[in-house]
Amino acid sequence: MSFNEVYIVNTSSYFPNDPVSNEEMEEYLGFINEKPSKSRRIVLRNNGIKNRYYALTRDGKVTHTNAQITAEAVKAVTGNTESGLKAIDLLSCGTSTPDQVMPAHGVMVHGLLPETNAIEVVSPAGVCCAGMHALKYAYLSVKTGEARNAVATGSERFSTLLTASVFEDEAQQLKALEENPYISFEKEFLRWMLSDGAAAFLMKDKPNETGISLRVEWLEGVSYANTMEACMYSASEKLPDGSLKSYMEYSPEEIIHKSILSIKQDVKLLSENIVPLGGVGLKAALDKHGVKSSEIDYFLPHMSSEFFKDKIFQRLIENGTGITYDKWFVNLTTVGNVGAASVYLMVDELFHSGKLKTGDKILLLVPESARFSYMYSLLTVC
Burial level of 58, CB count in 10 A (0-12/13-18/19+)? Predict the structure, then answer.
């Protein structure tokens, strides 16, 4: 059986509202315990982010749902035309922040696109890798001929989980107990890193007749959850033995008092493992496909913080897969960490930059700290 080649023939992105600077962040997210954060400047100095986007007004009111910003990205990638939307025969939407537990994120996006037909819709779950899982499902569907015009998306709406109201009750409880009224660093530092946005890829079995396309050579994924405990989590609490206790096992009062629905991260576990494990997986993927790192023209690593940049660079050298900084293409500083959408946003910016030329090879690296999963992909400009 022969398989189709698969091409990304267009990309798009959508950000809610105007960019928010470092100095404005707490005006949107609010002040916990009515006091400025002590950790904000330290975290921002390390992560290198200058601007991010929130689906919020300055006084904290929601302006967009995750499904809405994703639908806008889908409209844009199909040219904002009814015919373009009707041509879609698969919609694959990855996110870690769906607007609700049920229905699934993808069908909520589909529900905002009445111009489309009755089509297959899938909703890969996860964290940063969710967008890449959506991409792989679309890639395999086009490759096998199950779909001819597939749209894959990555999106996040983190901001509603970062507002002061999420943490206020816990802070008041701590204050009442005469303990430090500041939320633990594992919860608070993510407030200064995460951003909202969506992006989409239009994928077909033939390249564009004019203009560039990106041929998807391969996608590889690996999970180390068989040996690693949870590192980033939400709607749960991490117990001393490393297991997670679900929000469903807490009372409604406990969910509020302990800010169970917030996003947390085990910072020590993250710093010790995220880069080394990612390097192992990348070397394995390159070796499997017979690709040398010296052949790469653009390296697009998803990073949650600039703090990891030099660590990734050094680890690649140690693994014999070094890629010089002049080949790196990242936009963390200007758009923030948008989780499952981040790699899409980098590809979108590069795709429309005018820099690409036929034959260029683009390597994607997406780490996910939730329980240490990674996705890798190689694209060729044609």
Answer: exposed
